[in-house]
Design a protein that fits this description.
12% of the residues lie in helices and 55% in strands. It is built from one helix and ten strands; from the N terminus they run αββββββββββ. It is elongated and about 50 Å long. It has one helix at 2-17, and strands at residues 28-33, 39-45, 48-49, 56-58, 61-74, 83-97, 102-110, 113-120, 125-128, 130-136. The chain is mainly β and 137 residues long. The protein has a five-stranded mixed sheet, with no helix packed on it.
Length: 137
């Protein structure tokens, strides 16, 4: 378990070492927001696997975004036990991505329940995501 988390952390650090590309003004850019210690990574757009999990960049129009969301949950009396690490697959459909616009995909959890949503650059909620599948790691 710890080896898997170490591998995920090293992968994330390696991704952070390379700069993000410049956004294409002909496409929409989607970045991510989570709480510290959590990990949200791009997986697929319209069932096509992403090569860089740090963001989405999509053509204008309708798209289905799928992400993985990793977080830990403490259970037991007064949260004294070891954490349970969760891996959740979240899905979000949005029909109106616009060229040159920036969006942010948020994810958070309360215990084992997840919530995700898409915001525009002004912080207006545009779409709600849904939990597709969660498993303990």
């Amino acid at each position: 378990m710890r080896a898997l988390l170490l591998l995920a952390a090293l992968t994330l650090l390696g991704a952070c070492a390379s700069p993000l590309p410049q956004p294409d003004p002909q496409q929409a850019w989607i970045d991510f927001r989570t709480e510290p210690g959590e990990l949200l990574m791009a997986e697929t757009v319209d069932n096509r696997r992403m090569s860089d999990g740090r963001y989405f960049q999509v053509a204008p129009g309708a798209h289905r975004l799928e992400v993985t969301y990793r977080f830990e949950v403490f259970i037991g009396p007064l949260f004294t036990s070891d954490p349970v690490y969760m891996l959740c697959y979240l899905r979000l459909d949005y029909a109106n991505f616009a060229a040159g616009q920036r969006y942010r995909l948020h994810a958070r959890h309360w215990q084992f329940q997840t919530e995700s949503w898409l915001e525009d650059a002004n912080g207006q909620r545009l779409a709600e995501g849904q939990e597709w599948h969660c498993i303990p790691q």
